[in-house]
Amino acid sequence: MTRTTPWLRSGALLVGMLAWGCSSSAATDPVQVAAGDADTDHQGSLDADDDAADTPPAASCMGSAILPGFAAYDKDCDFLSVCPKSGNCYCGASCKSEETLCEPSLCTDVSTTCWCGEACLTEGKKLCPQYICDKDIETQGCIAQEQCAFVDIDPPSWCGCVKMPDREADCWCGTCNPPKPACSADKCVGKNPEKCIVVPGAPYTEPYCETCGLVNTQPRCFFVVVPGAQTP
Question: Which tens digit of pLDDT belongs to each residue from 31-72?
């Protein structure tokens, strides 16, 4: 895993903590730096002078971005993008654009059909919320309608605050059964191709995202670690 961040390697590292978000007990080697949503790409609703900032964004981790450029590490957290669609979401073609739709697999057994009309009371039909039924429908018998159904299950437990590894992923050389992630050819030089040999991932030497989470529904990097750096 290679990352190029010359601005972090070229001199003293300026670190500041936003009072609401960050712990004061960060390790000194490697340095942990709060990251995620305060660079220019994320600032938006965090601006105290903005009326929209009255309600801070919902964050799944403690911490917040404080240095421009840290948004580059958000891509390391993209695996969390499935979380908003994995629970506490909605099924149905009538859902509004601001509502988060579930993954299709979650909607397989969810009925989005409901019914409007006084006649439904004697037919045992599932009644729609009142806002779906207008007066004209009420007098036409029991009429099927489409509703936006809420799926009341929590996303998987790992969809919260995830601590990322401090090293590259392990890889394997040789013939593995079942197959395993293969190393690049240079890592397998001199190793028996008839055996399945693990090559442990090397510790990162470049800055990397140490903590991934969500801000509202967006994956964000909350902390960046700079290996070998010292606090000012």
Answer: 455 444 434 344 333 343 444 445 666 888 876 655 566 788
**Taking the model in full, what pTM does it have?**
0.61
Query: Is 133 in a helix, a strand, or coil?
Result: coil
DSSP-derived secondary structure for 12-40: -------TTT--S---BTTEEEE-SSSST
